[in-house]
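Review this chain:
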Amino acid sequence: MRRANHPATEDVALPEVMGALSDPVRIGLVRVLADGSERGWGALRAPVAKSTLSHHLRVLRDAGVTRTRQEGTRCFVRLRREDLDTRFPGLIEAVLAAADADGVGNGVGLMPGAT
């Protein structure tokens, strides 16, 4: 895997964040990661092919929504909640509340046995 690029907090731009959050699968991933835990990519379950899941994770990372960490051959992802709250106070909370109310991203979760 190539080294992941993460925008600095001050470089995270609202249009890119909103674009990244414009897909139900990506919103579902944000909902799963909203508990603050770092998750291995293999622990994530979504109704898409693995290559498509990888694409969605890259879009979130490139927009500054998530941070990816590589450890050997494994990759881990977490929500950049603090950075996003610094740049756009209340945005993630509002997105999560609306997604929860409307069931957006309900098909995304964790593999059985993943914590």
Notes: The beta strands are 39-40, 44-45, 66-71, 74-79, 109-110.
